[in-house]
Each structure stands twice: as structure tokens, then as C-alpha cells.
Specification:
With 696 residues, chain A is mainly α. Chain A contains 21 helices and two strands. The chains are: A mainly alpha (696), B alpha+beta (421).
Chain lengths: 696, 421
């Protein structure tokens, strides 16, 4: 994909290079590019990493409401013994979709929202390496998400929802045991989501590797950039494994293959190995972005640099590597043999070490700091506190003999909710509050934010804290109900009440977004300034909201936390003093002469084609064929479309720059990575006017 | 924010954490004795596991308090109350006070990498020792081996009294696994369809029943008693209703029970309600359910009291010709063997009690000790099983409804079943 993109667009780039009348005609007839940055169309066709990031975030929040509603149904069903709110069949669909939704459609795209929005900004680039591909990632994700979620509705309420658990163990997911369309939706939907994540991973890896602003060496990158980079590598290597597994499953179900057919000699453990070789790195894919966010927030509100930067980076890398060697701890009772169990038991134990290093470094950052408990800081410290609980229960699972008592009980449910809700989700919410002014130009209300945090945190602990107890008292996972005399009633009721408290907290977040937006608009949209939190990263060095071209000029980075060190210096006595006001350092976004990639029709068309192919595979291959036509058409359109729309008003072509910017990085390789367009100069501005005149 | 509001926030945070801890402590101390609790083991393996994990819970608890305490202490000590307007020269902070700009401390980093590593290394030694010790257990004292077969959504137990699983079992029962007290009973765990997991929390951890595979496991109880279990691997529609019970009997009683189990049932006299019930049963139920001595001749083509010919579910001992497994054909034997139904305390995958108010007085040996038969539930089950326990009977998974039976028919069937003691 990436290679095609480069080789095809590059010659057109040269065609388009000469300024003046040469590009005024349309060399390829109908294949033109959309233009403009206003109105809803501009969102559909955008290739701007910031808009794509915002769309990822919005979609993730939408799916969060879906997954949250599913969670409430689970809790209602389990609130009392012999519950009959939704019944066993629907319950199986609901808990499966809750897991799938929260993992693939909430946490991952939320992290993708931050990765898309922040990675180019944090490394000082103008956009990601492949902007059109980035847009395609989003539309492909949305296609997969809508396909999966539609399974709730098609053919009746939860009649065709996946019902085999998010782990979909064979052979229970075979056609014989799960005859509805649910598992087909699961297999096809996750494959589409996998394409989206894989493409996005490659894009972001290339961005970080090739498009850092001059001077930004690896160890001058913010920890969030590091964690996101590690996450993308984990995705790059983990997704092919699950894709293989899903492919086999799809062939089993749709075309009578026998990969998981025990009667034909298959061993169901094959699925488990494939799933968890993906599934455990997936856990770190979920948590590492949140670790990065926490590592940004805590230093800002401690007014200190991050303690042990290099160790934070190294522990992240260590987690990334060790995460590949622990998958069979999900299979301690599956019969993999004592030697395997021993090996994975030990490896699982030691992955706690780098995680612990992170916790301690965060605490050390706060030590002797000047701590401001703003909403983002509350969330970040919430992660430190709650994730620790999840980490400790995680160590107790590593004790393999004890895990035979704990696995598949509510103790595990408690554990991973402390990790994924208490770690990942709280961190991501903290990120929303922290970067909201950067993305939208105003802060969310602190009062509502704090209230929402506390309600969520209390609800969270009342929901998942008791699950530790339930698990140790023997309550099994994924059971649609339990007998009255099993003694689970009390804590289940507490957990159900807690879940609704969480729901209130989440509602308060959305209310906060509404109220804060309204108040800001009523107040005449006051400017929040480029750096509302007195923060450290490059993303704060440009106007809020970030102008389309990110930075007015390339930033020459000379150290870690470059922006902060531009703001502050030390006097003779070693005291930190203000070196320059932010308004002098930060870019005001006034440069209108930065070359930007043009919007494109084809990413969304390609995503739509994939959606049709997806439904077609499940329901009717003729539909898939129609989708394939769409898909191939979109690829051709993509290839043949001109690099820029020659008709676009204000078409900027800063071809004097080393970096010609569209869809690919720096072909000349001027010795250092460079991602940003040069600043406006008299030289570039003049031909600009000339060209506009010619075109007009 | 005012100081008062700040205080409230501070107080509520303390309350959250204190409350959570209090809940856990109360739960563990007061709320200990649950039927499925892993915290009050009775079996030797269960105790070994508890002895391994309890000190680790304590270590984890200490770390928990250290970290949470550190968070709270840092919060209390270093928080800065005050203006947060963000209008001043210093942006958000409005002040020019800066803490020491510490970047790190390599010694500290190495220390807090090594200390947890050593701690975990110690824990892993204990873990590995326990792991291999638990794995090394071989059935002792008595050579009973029970083949445990999971099937949507109940359990079958095939008793091999001589421990030889290569020969047909001596008898077959369902859902309630009876073992002698103090004896390590070897289990050979299999599955007829999807993956299940066999778990009696008070006795031992769980072990998956994976189709196509045989997993060795051991179960033992130090005391007589009834111990609940639950299938713990998601196995489809009625997973939550797939339960089981392990019963530990003193040795003498166990032998009595065992001898009783090997006795085939006798046909009830014709013309009695029991006889009418048997007639209905043989038409409606016997295509799947086995009652040794009665159904065999009609449905199984063998001698009346011969062992089931479908015991060899993977065909391991029969030249690859397996019994019923993983097919849409549900045939005789692939439903619970009902020969001694009345000696069990539960039915339908242990989802329902067979006796009311029985407590632990289940008539493993003597029906006279029984509580009241849970007639209403049993009748409801016979007439419309999928309504009581979700099943996919159309695809031959779970017991189909028999709504065509009249109340009299059902009464008679219950009367017949009551003779199966």
C-alpha cells in the first residue's frame, strides 16, 4: 500500500511542480480533488491529521455509549439471582459485543484519536507521512465499527450479534454451535478493523521515523510519542496474527474449511494460541497510549520534568518486547502442559517490573513538585492509583497454580477492568481534558470535569472492586445468571449500582462538553492561548485550535521539552525564571503559505467499498462483488488523482522547499528528518500571487 | 475553587479509597464461607493453592498500601492551592515558584528495578515448586479414575474402579461426582462438543475439557461434604446453567454408593402409575437417556446391563470409531444417564435441586432420608425444559420441550423417575 502510494504520486508531483499555466488544465479529466476547509463535505474528504483525529475521538465516544449501554444491560441482568432482564441468549450477545466494542471500537480508536492528532504535532511535522492513507484508516475503521455494531440490529434485536465472547474460542464459534450470523460479523468486522489499524500503524511509524522536525532525535521525543510509537509496532506485528486466525475462522464458517473442526482432527488450542499471541500484546496496545498521556500530564501539573525519562522510555520498550512472551498465561488451564505453564508463569511475573518502574517514576515526578490537581491531573493520578490495583491483581494471576482458581472468574473481570478502565480509559479521558483546549480553543469546565471524575471514580470502584470478592467467592465469568444460594447477590447488586454511578459520571462528561462549548460561544469565543496549562511539548507551541498547517515554520529542536526550555531559563543563582513570554515563542498560525496535501474523495469511497464487501461476505457474494467494483474503482481513482487540485483557491506550492510534502516525506534526504513546510518568504509568496492570478 | 470545596474533594477521595478497602476486608473476613469460595478450601490441592497465594495476597496488599499511601501523601504534601485563572504571565500557574527541576536518579531507578525483580524471583521459586508438586500428584490409595465428559450443558462421569480407562467404565452417572474422603481421585477430562472447564473451587483449581484432548486432573476432599462447581469456560447458550457438584463420602459409604450405582434398574409393574410412566419414558425420553437395565435392550442393542457402548468418545480404544461427539446427531447415551437419578441432589446440569429443604441430607444411600421431592421444578423441566434452562433443542443441544405430554403423563413419568434410586 505504502509503496504504491509513493511510486504513483511522485511522478505527478513532478508534473505539477512547474508553477503557472502548466497546471491550470486538468491533466486527468474528471479526476480532480475536492477543495475547501469549511462545511461537512470538508470533513468527509479531509486528509488533515487533526480532523481525522477528532473524527476518531468522536466515533470512539459514540461507540463508548453503545458499549456502555451494553455494560448496563449486563449489570441489570446480574443484579439479582435468577435474573431475567435480557435472558441467556441476548446476554451472550451483549457481553460479547460489550467486550468487542470497548476493546476495538472505544479504547483503540480513542488512542488513535490522540495518535493522529498529537503525533505530528509532538514531532513538529506538518501532517502524517501519508495523509490520504490516514483518512482511509479512519473510514475503514468506521466501516468495520458500523458493520460490527449493526449486528445488534440486523434480523432482530441481538439475533445476529456475535455470541462467542470477544475471545471467540473454537469450536464454540463454529457453524454447528453458533449458527447465527453473529460470528461472521465478528470475523469480518475485526478483519476490516485490522486493516484500518495496520494501515494506521505503518503510517504513524513512518511519520515518527521520517518526519521529525530538525534536531528532534529519538531521545528528544516526548514520552507520549514514544509510547504511541511502541503501540504502533505492537499493532504492526500483532494484527497479522489475529487476521490469520479470523481468516481461518471465516473459511471454516462460510466455506466449510476444517481448521477448527475437531472431528476432522483439529486441535482447538490452535485458535487459543493465535488469539492470545495477538491478544496479549493487544493489552499493551490498549494501555501504553494511556501511559504516554499520564507521562505528559503529571510533569505539567507537577511543574517538573518527567522523572527518569530514559527509564520511562526503556520500560515502555521492555513492556513492548516482553508483551510477546506472556500470551499463554491466558491458557494456564487449557492443558498446555506444566513446562509451558511454568515458563509463562515466570515471564508474566517479570513483566510487572517495567510497569512498576513506570508507577514509581510518576510518583517521583510528583515528589517535591508543585502539584495542581486540575481535571487532567486527577485523571492521571487516578491512573497511577487504579492501575496499581490492576497490576497487583495481575501478579496474582501469574502464580499459575492460583490462576487455576482465578481464571474465568470475576476476579479476572475485576483485574482487567482496573487495567483497562482504571488505566487506559481514565488516562484517555484525562487526555481529553488536557488537549481539549489545544484541539478546540477552549477548556472544558473544571468544576464539571472534577465532579465527573469523582463520580466516575467512585462508581468505578463500587462496580469493579466487589468483583474481586465475587471472583474469589467463586463467581464464574460469562454466566447469564446465578443461583440464589450461591451467595453472589449482595456484591452483584453493589456492582450494578456502581455501574449506574459510572453512567452518571459519563453523562456529566458529555454535559460538560455541551455546557463548556455553549459558554465559550456565548462569551464570544475567547482565545485560550497556545499554552493554557504551561506545558512542555511542541504541540503547545502553536495556536489553539491548531491551524491547519500546524506550525508556521520548522522548529529547530535542541533538547527534550524544547518548548518549555524556550519559555524558562535559569538565573545566576540557578533559579528557574521566565526567559520569554509564550506569545513570543509560540506560532500564531498566521503563515498562510504552507503547502498542505489536498483533500481527497477516495479514502471514504474505498472505506465504503470495504463495508459493502464485508456485508457481501456475510450475506451474499454478489454484494461483495459490487463492493469489490467500488473498491477497485476507488483504488484507481486514488492512483490517478492529481497530487493537488489545480483549481483550488490559494493553492500553495512551496516547491522551493526541500520537502514537497504531499503524501511522502523527504525525497532528497537533507540529512535530518524534516516534516514541516518552510516559512513564508518573499520568494515563495510572489509566484503564489502570480499563480492565483493565472488560475483565476 | 474554595478551600471548603477543596476539602470536600479531599475528603471524598479518602472516603472512596477507605471505603473500597473496607469493603474488601469485610467481604473476606465476614463473608468467607460461600458454596463456591476459593477462600475456604477443603481439598488438599485447594489448600496447597491457598497456602501459596495467601502470603502473596499479603505482599500485594503491602505494596497496595505503600503505593496508595504514597499517592495520598504526595497529594497532601505537595499540592498547591490557589489561583488557576491562567491569565497571568506564567500561563496557568500565575506564580514564579518552581520546584527543583530533578530529571532523575539512576541509582534510584536501578534500585526500583532490582528490588521488585528479586521479590518476584522469590515468588516465582515458590510458584514453580508448587506448580510441579501439584502436577506430580498421582492417584493413590484407591485406583479410581473417573472420565469426566463435558457436554452442552451438563457433565457425565464414567467410573473406572480399577483405574483402567482403556476398558469400558463400571458405571456412568451425571452432574454429581461422588468420591471417597481423603483419596486423590484421578480425573480424565474430555469434551463431547465445545470447550468446558471443570471446577470445584473448594477442592482444586479448574481444568478445561477440550474436545479431542484428554486432560489429567486430580480431586480430593479432606472432609465429607457437598461441594458446588460451575463450568467456567464459556460454552454457549446455557453456560451459566452448567453446574456440577462433588460429593465426598466416608469410605464405607462410598463403597455402598458405588455398589448401588452398579445395580441396574428394574422395570416397574405394568398398570401402576410408575409402569405408565416407564411406557411414556421409553417412547419420549429413551432415545437419548439411558436407564441401565431398562433402556439398553430397546435402544442400545446390547445386553440389558452392559456398560454403555459410547464411553469411548474419541475412539481412542476402539480403532478410531468414536461414540457420539460433535455431530448434529444426538444419540442414546449423549444425555445424562438416569439409572440412579434419585440418588443425586440436583438435576439438569445441577441447575436445579431435586429435593426441597434437603440441606446436605441428600439420599446418596437411602431414599428414606430424602427431603421433599422438588416436584414442581421436575415437572416443569420434563414438560418444557428450554423454558427452565435455555437450550437450542432444534439443533439437538439441550433437552427439547415435551409440551405434548398431559399432566397425567408427566405425573406418571415423575412416578417412574422416583423409582430410580
Amino acid at each position: 500500500m505504502t509503496v504504491t502510494d509513493r511510486t504513483i504520486t511522485a511522478p505527478e508531483e513532478t508534473l505539477a511542480l512547474p508553477a503557472g499555466p502548466a497546471i491550470a488544465h486538468r491533466p486527468l479529466g474528471i479526476f480532480t480533488r475536492p477543495q475547501g476547509s469549511e462545511g461537512w463535505r470538508s470533513w468527509l474528504f479531509t486528509v488533515d491529521h487533526k480532523r481525522i483525529g477528532i473524527m476518531y475521538g468522536a466515533a470512539a465516544l459514540f461507540f463508548f455509549l453503545v458499549g456502555g449501554a451494553e455494560a448496563l444491560f449486563i449489570r441489570l441482568q446480574l443484579a439479582t439471582p435468577n435474573g431475567s432482564v435480557i435472558g441467556a441468549g441476548t446476554y451472550n450477545g451483549v457481553f460479547t459485543m460489550h467486550g468487542v466494542t470497548m476493546v476495538f471500537l472505544v479504547i483503540m480508536p480513542m488512542a488513535a484519536a490522540f495518535a493522529n492528532y498529537l503525533l505530528p504535532l509532538q514531532v513538529g511535522a506538518r501532517d502524517v507521512a501519508f495523509p490520504r492513507l490516514n483518512a482511509f484508516s479512519f473510514w475503514c475503521f468506521l466501516a468495520g465499527g458500523l458493520l460490527l455494531t449493526s449486528s445488534i440490529l440486523v434480523g432482530g434485536w441481538f439475533q445476529n450479534a456475535p455470541d462467542g465472547g470477544w475471545f471467540a474460542y473454537a469450536p464454540n464459534t463454529g457453524l454447528l454451535f453458533s449458527p447465527s450470523k453473529g460470528i461472521d460479523f465478528y470475523a469480518v468486522g475485526l478483519q476490516i478493523l485490522g486493516i484500518a489499524s495496520l494501515v494506521s500503524a505503518i503510517n504513524l511509524i513512518v511519520t515518527v521515523l521520517n518526519m521529525r522536525t530538525p534536531g528532534m532525535s529519538f531521545f528528544r521525543m516526548p514520552v507520549l510519542t514514544w509510547m504511541l510509537l511502541i503501540t504502533q509496532f505492537l499493532l504492526l506485528f500483532a494484527l497479522p496474527v489475529i487476521t490469520v486466525a479470523l481468516f481461518l475462522l471465516m473459511f471454516d464458517r462460510l466455506w466449510d474449511a476444517n481448521f477448527f473442526n475437531v472431528e476432522a482432527g483439529a486441535d482447538p488450542l490452535l485458535w487459543q494460541h493465535l488469539f492470545w499471541i495477538f491478544g496479549h500484546p493487544e493489552v499493551y496496545i490498549l494501555i501504553l497510549p494511556a501511559f504516554g498521556i499520564v507521562s505528559e500530564i503529571i510533569p505539567t501539573f507537577s511543574r517538573k520534568p518527567l522523572f527518569g525519562y530514559h527509564f520511562m522510555v526503556a520500560s515502555g520498550i521492555a513492556i513492548g518486547f516482553m508483551g510477546w512472551g506472556v500470551w499463554a498465561h491466558h491458557m494456564f488451564t487449557s492443558g498446555v502442559g506444566p513446562l509451558s505453564v511454568a515458563a509463562f508463569s515466570v515471564s508474566t511475573m517479570f513483566i510487572a517490573v517495567p510497569t512498576g518502574v513506570k508507577i514509581l517514576n510518576w510518583l517521583a515526578t510528583m515528589y517535591r513538585g508543585r502539584l495542581r490537581f486540575t481535571t487532567p491531573m486527577l485523571y492521571a493520578v487516578g491512573v497511577v492509583s487504579m492501575f496499581t490495583i490492576g497490576g497487583l491483581s495481575g501478579v496474582t494471576h501469574a502464580i499459575a497454580p492460583s490462576d487455576t482458581q482465578q481464571t474465568d472468574t470475576y476476579y479476572i473481570v475485576a483485574h482487567f477492568h482496573y487495567v483497562i478502565f482504571g488505566g487506559a480509559l481514565l488516562g484517555l479521558f484525562g487526555g481529553f481534558y488536557y488537549w481539549w483546549p489545544k484541539a478546540f480553543g477552549y477548556k472544558l469546565s473544571e468544576a464539571w470535569g472534577k465532579a465527573s471524575f469523582w463520580v466516575m471514580l467512585i462508581g468505578f470502584n463500587f462496580t469493579f472492586g466487589p468483583m474481586h470478592i465475587l471472583g474469589l467467592q467463586g463467581m464464574s465469568r460469562r454466566i447469564a445468571t446465578y443461583r440464589a444460594d450461591e451467595g453472589f447477590a449482595l456484591w452483584n447488586m453493589v456492582a450494578t449500582i456502581g455501574a449506574f454511578v459510572i453512567a452518571v459520571g459519563v453523562a456529566m462528561f458529555f454535559w460538560n462538553v455541551y455546557v463548556s462549548t455553549r459558554n465559550w460561544r456565548r462569551a464570544g469565543r475567547p482565545d485560550v492561548g497556545p499554552d493554557p496549562w504551561d506545558a512542555r511539548g511542541l504541540e503547545w507551541m502553536t495556536a489553539s485550535p491548531v491551524p491547519e498547517h500546524n506550525f508556521d515554520e520548522d522548529i529547530q529542536v535542541d533538547r527534550l521539552d524544547h518548548f518549555w526550555h524556550r519559555k524558562y531559563g535559569k538565573d545566576e543563582s540557578g533559579r528557574v525564571v521566565r526567559a520569554a513570554p509564550t506569545s513570543e515563542i509560540a506560532h500564531d498560525g498566521s503563515n498562510t503559505n504552507v503547502h498542505l496535501p489536498s483533500p481527497s474523495y477516495w479514502p471514504i469511497v474505498l472505506g465504503g467499498g470495504i463495508l459493502l464487501v464485508g456485508y457481501g461476505i456475510i450475506y451474499n457474494l454478489w454484494l461483495a462483488a459490487a463492493g469489490l467494483v467500488f473498491l477497485i474503482g476507488a483504488i484507481y481513482g486514488w492512483i490517478l488523482e492529481p497530487a493537488d487540485d489545480p483549481d483550488a483557491a490559494g493553492h500553495h506550492d512551496d516547491h522551493h522547499d526541500d520537502d514537497d510534502g504531499d503524501d511522502h516525506g523527504d525525497p532528497d534526504g537533507n540529512g535530518g528528518p524534516s516534516g514541516n513546510g518552510e516559512s513564508a518568504s518573499a520568494e515563495t509568496e510572489e509566484p503564489e500571487t502570480e499563480e492565483a492570478a493565472t488560475v483565476g | 475553587m474554595s478551600g471548603r470545596a477543596r476539602g470536600l474533594v479531599w475528603l471524598s477521595s479518602l472516603l472512596v479509597i477507605a471505603g473500597t478497602i473496607a469493603l474488601i476486608v469485610v467481604a473476606i473476613v465476614v463473608d468467607k464461607d460461600h458454596p463456591l469460595s476459593t477462600l475456604s478450601p477443603v481439598g488438599r490441592q485447594g489448600r496447597d493453592i491457598a497456602e501459596l497465594i495467601n502470603p502473596i495476597f499479603i505482599v500485594a496488599g503491602v505494596v497496595f498500601f505503600l503505593v496508595q499511601g504514597a499517592v495520598l501523601a504526595l497529594w497532601w504534601r505537595y499540592r498547591v492551592a490557589g489561583s488557576e485563572t491562567g491569565d497571568g504571565e506564567y500561563g496557568y500557574y500565575d506564580d514564579d515558584e518552581f520546584p527543583d527541576q530533578t530529571h532523575g536518579n539512576n541509582r534510584l531507578e536501578i534500585a526500583w528495578t532490582i528490588v521488585p525483580t528479586v521479590l518476584l524471583a522469590v515468588i516465582s521459586v515458590f510458584t514453580l515448586v508448587a506448580l510441579f508438586a501439584l502436577d506430580d500428584v498421582k492417584a493413590s490409595d484407591e485406583d479410581i479414575t473417573v472420565t469426566v465428559i463435558g457436554q452442552q450443558w451438563w457433565w457425565e462421569y464414567q467410573y473406572h474402579l480399577d483405574g483402567d480407562t482403556d476398558t469400558p467404565p463400571d458405571f456412568v452417572t451425571a452432574n454429581e461426582l461422588v468420591i471417597p474422603v481423603g483419596v486423590d481421585v484421578a480425573l480424565d477430562i474430555k469434551s463431547r462438543d465445545v470447550i468446558h472447564s471443570f471446577w470445584i473451587p473448594k477442592l482444586n483449581g479448574k481444568r478445561d475439557a477440550v474436545p479431542g484432548r484428554s486432560h489429567d486432573w486430580v480431586i480430593q476432599s479432606e472432609e465429607p461434604g457437598r461441594f458446588r462447581g460451575q463450568c467456567t469456560e464459556f460454552c454457549g447458550l446455557s453456560h451459566g446453567y452448567m453446574k456440577m457438584v462433588a460429593v465426598a463420602l466416608p469410605t464405607a459409604e462410598f463403597h455402598q454408593w458405588k455398589n448401588n450405582q452398579m445395580t441396574p434398574a428394574e422395570a416397574p409393574a405394568e398398570g401402576t402409575p410408575e409402569g405408565e410412566g416407564w411406557a411414556t419414558f421409553s417412547q419420549q425420553c429413551a432415545s437419548c437417556h439411558v436407564v441401565n437395565g431398562l433402556t439398553s435392550a430397546a435402544n442400545r442393542g446390547g445386553a440389558a446391563d452392559s456398560p454403555p457402548d459410547d464411553w469411548d468418545i474419541y475412539g481412542e480404544h476402539n480403532g478410531g470409531s468414536a461414540g457420539p461427539v460433535l455431530t448434529t446427531e444426538l444419540v442414546a447415551g449423549a444425555a445424562p444417564n438416569l439409572t440412579h437419578l434419585m440418588t443425586r441432589g440436583t438435576f439438569a446440569g445441577s441447575a436445579f435441586d431435586l429435593y426441597l429443604n434437603a440441606g446436605d441430607h441428600i439420599p446418596y444411600l437411602d431414599l428414606a432420608e430424602a427431603g421433599t421431592l422438588n416436584r414442581g421444578e421436575l415437572e416443569a423441566w420434563i414438560s418444557n425444559a428450554p423454558e427452565r434452562k435455555p437450550a437450542d433443542a432444534d439443533d439437538l443441544r439441550g433437552m427439547p420441550a415435551r409440551t405434548g405430554l398431559s399432566p397425567t403423563d408427566i405425573d406418571n413419568v415423575v412416578a417412574f423417575l422416583s423409582t430410580l434410586d
